[in-house]
Amino acid sequence: MKTIFLVVPCYNEEEVLPETSKRLNKKMKQLKKAGTISPESRVVFVDDGSKDKTWKIIAKLHEKLPQMFDGVKLSRNEGHQNALYAGLMQVKAHCDAAISLDADLQDDIEAIDEMIQRFDEGNDIVYGVRSQRETDTFFKRTTARGFYKIMTHMGVEMVEDHADFRLMSRRALEGLSEFHEVNLFLRGMVPMIGYPTAEVYYERGERFAGESKYPLRKMISFAAQGITSLSVKPIRLITSLGIGIFFTSLLILLYSLIRHLTGHTVAGWTSTVFSIWAIGGLQLLAIGIIGEYIGKIYLETKARPKYLIQTWLHEEPKQPEPEQPEQQDGAAQG
Question: From start to end of 14-83, where are the E strands?
């Protein structure tokens, strides 16, 4: 039997945690009873610097059921991706595989059975993929599709309609730990690991309590984070734009000279128009070239810690005491 840890990042989730823990406890008991996972498997809640009672609830869960619930408390709010990464790195030495999912349980936990099955078949990474988006609004559905297309155009390998509901083996987690980016975008980083993968399809449910932690503003910021963390194409687009404008300025120069020679311009018009176009193009070209190098430095040399662990609630599984050999009669006699 494999030891499976569920990693659940939490930020101000006091409204959903009681129900979430109840459902996950029931699910883990079913899997253990069926022999699908080992008795050492458990749920790990990662508190991402919550300002409500999230950590108190996690601590009480661990105190009540230490063999089912663990807790990780970050020293401050680091964001969803860093909190998830912290949880995965914290458990990788204690499990055969870890499954990440959101605290609101919109991801169908019944898909966990098939994920583990695909893992047993030899897949190191199993993606949970939404089978449809009928429950989304037209705006959200359209923007989501557009986001995946933009990311693909930027050269980022991603699994469409997959968020952060995935299984990763210990080997895949070790591979992920070799990526040293500070600005994380796990949806784009995990496919870069390259081990055998599989997909499990499920229908995403509605959030049963609380409010979404990803309003439009954060979604836009998250998309920008994904693009700038994994691609330097925007900088190259600026370079291309600069080159295009510079060559356009040469055509403007030719046009201005013709207008000047035919007497259709006022004094100073030619030099002014050419200067604006030429200098603007050269500036963008220079910024693009410099940005090309800055982009590579940006991706390689940041060394700030991704997170700091404040508290780690974890109880090692109890090992049976070794049996003492019985002494035979007269064994102690000389």
Answer: 42-47, 69-74
- Alpha carbons 104 and 80: distance in angstroms, whole number: 13
Give the whole-angstrom CA distance, residue 63 versus residue 311. 14
In the sheet with 69-74, reading across from the earlier edge strand, the strands are: 197-202, 125-130, 162-169, 97-100, 4-10, 42-47, 69-74, 309-313
d(CA 289, CA 294): 9
pLDDT digits (tens, 9 = 90+) for 77-90: 988 999 999 999 99
Rounded CA gap, 299 and 182, in Å?
A: 9
| Residues forming beta bridges with residue 2, ordered by sequence position | 37
Detail the DSSP E strand segments found in 231-330: 309-313
Measure the CA–CA gap between 302 and 304, rounded to whole angstroms. Answer: 6
What are the tens digits of pLDDT across the range 242-272?
Answer: 788 778 778 877 877 787 777 766 666 666 7
Using CA atoms, how far residue 175 sits from 169, 171, 182, 184, 192, in Å, is: 10, 6, 16, 15, 10
Lookup: tokens for 139: 């705006």
